[in-house]
Amino acid sequence: QVRLAESGGGLVQAGDSLRLSCAASGRTFSDHDVGWFRQAPGKEREFVAAIGWNVRNTAYVSSVKGRFTISRDNPENTASLQMNSLKPEDTAVYYCAARFRGYYAGGYSAQDSYRYWGQGTQVTVSS
Question: What would the DSSP string read from start to end of 37-88?
């Protein structure tokens, strides 16, 4: 069991930055890939970014490349999503998720492959 708790959301203006954090507890965090997903009102939840258990690999949805950076600190059992140059279309509830390391056919963006999820944190970007 891995328990995840997001923090760092808020209301910002377009162009501002936010840093989301994901604190993990329970089983060995360093054996798990971590992903960030988001769900905007009236839309399906979508993949945003992910980082592999060994920190070597990262992935991003095209709409956030160059603006968002995912990172993790395994000894501290945390993961972060630095979001720069925020846009109104980034408004959503952001979720942290984790899955045990391994091969997954759908890659990092496969939501069903993530077993553990946080409660989410709201990010609102005003224009």
Answer: EEE-TTS--EEEEEE-TTSS-EEE-GGGTTTEEEEEEGGGTEEEEEE-S--G
Q: How confident is the model over 24-34, as pLDDT tens digits?
A: 998 789 999 99
Q: Rounded CA gap, 13 and 70, in Å?
A: 21
- Gap between the Cα atoms of 43 and 24, Å rounded: 27
CA distances from 19 to 54, 73, 101, 113 (A): 21, 14, 25, 25
Give residue 95's identity as a one-letter amino acid code: Y
- Give pLDDT tens digits for 54-104: 888 999 999 999 999 999 999 999 999 999 999 999 999 999 999 999 999
Place of tokens 């939840």: 45
**In the numeric block, which tokens belong to residue 36?**
């960030």
Say if strands 2-7 and 18-26 run parallel, antiparallel, or are unpaired.
antiparallel
Q: Cβ(49)–Cβ(55) under 8 Å?
A: no
